[in-house]
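Customer ticket, subject: "Can you confirm the structure for Esterase?"

Message body: Hello, I'm evaluating your service for our small team and ran a test protein. I'd like someone to confirm that this is what the system normally returns, since I don't have a reference to compare against.
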Amino acid sequence: MSGARRVLTRGREARIYSGAAWSVGDADGSLERGWTGTRSWNGPDLDGTDLWDLASVTKPIVGLAVMALVDRGVITLDHTVGTHLPTYRRGDKEDLTIRHLLTHTSGIPGQVPLYRDHPTRSALLDAVRLLPVTTRPGTRVEYSSQGFIVLGLIAEAASGQPLDSLVNRLVCEPLGMKHTFFRPGARWRARAVATEDCPWRDRLIVGEVHDENAAVLGGVGGHAGLFSTLRDMELLGAALAAGGRGLLSADTCTQMTAAHTDGLALRRCLAWQGQDPTGSPVGDAFGPDSYGHTGFTGTSLWMDPPTGRYAVLLTNRVHPTRVGDGIAGVRRAFHDAATRPGPAQSAWGETPA
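Agent reply: Thanks for trying us out. I re-ran your input and got the following:
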């Protein structure tokens, strides 16, 4: 049994999630892949074709579409919010740049549960527009889902296309990612892995977006809403390992994946998280030039350019409840196992038998 399989099997045994799927590979494709567990605690076994809620891994995929627009000269990183969104003019976000939004340095506060008081799309978007900026742009990294909601609106306005169509055209179609989409239809909802027994919606969430703000937006947002399969995430990992093959020019991919917040407390690329010296969600197994992103549902994609390797991890750690932080140890142990030969350390700091 491989180290990655040991770690993820033990994660299920500890009831951190009902199921997990993973892949480690390079530009030529997967070197190791697998899955363990079930789609829900009393559901069918995973079979490798399962559909996962990517949660915030949506952000860098939307970011890839935005950078493809940069490549095409449709937008620039220094375009402002006011350039593309007339309703934001003469407000505190008018002069924020696309670069600020991509690096989470816009000053727009993050993780705000707007859905609680704004139950319609129009009301929630108005609330995002009116949410006060709390820091001077470019001076602090503050993770902001609301900033990526604004980024999605800019991408729509600049391209003249709905965000879901834009992501499909600029990211999914070029890579053959046929099973990555917002708002899965009935056939794919039947293959979806369960997430939370949601107290707000009063039901178990299967095949609809877990993020509540994204749900109010109709399932499509710059911050969350994408679903995908293990195979499609492998295609994305391989393309990024090959320098953005099929997606971006080499220079634009390099620009996107380089650190843009040196001197600030957290290391951010453009839509990607850089490898922080301490506190990285993947531990220290991946090098200082690595980048990636995690998702609240228990997903992640991480890249290590010097070695040309990617690591995909898909779990449903919010099933049936979001309470608990066991995924943090599992994620670090998985990435350690993915990069280091020999017996893997488990998520609990002991070598599995």
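A couple of notes from the result: The first strand starts at residue 19 and ends at 26. Residues 3-339 form a domain with the Beta-lactamase fold (CATH 3.40.710.10). Feel free to reply with more questions.
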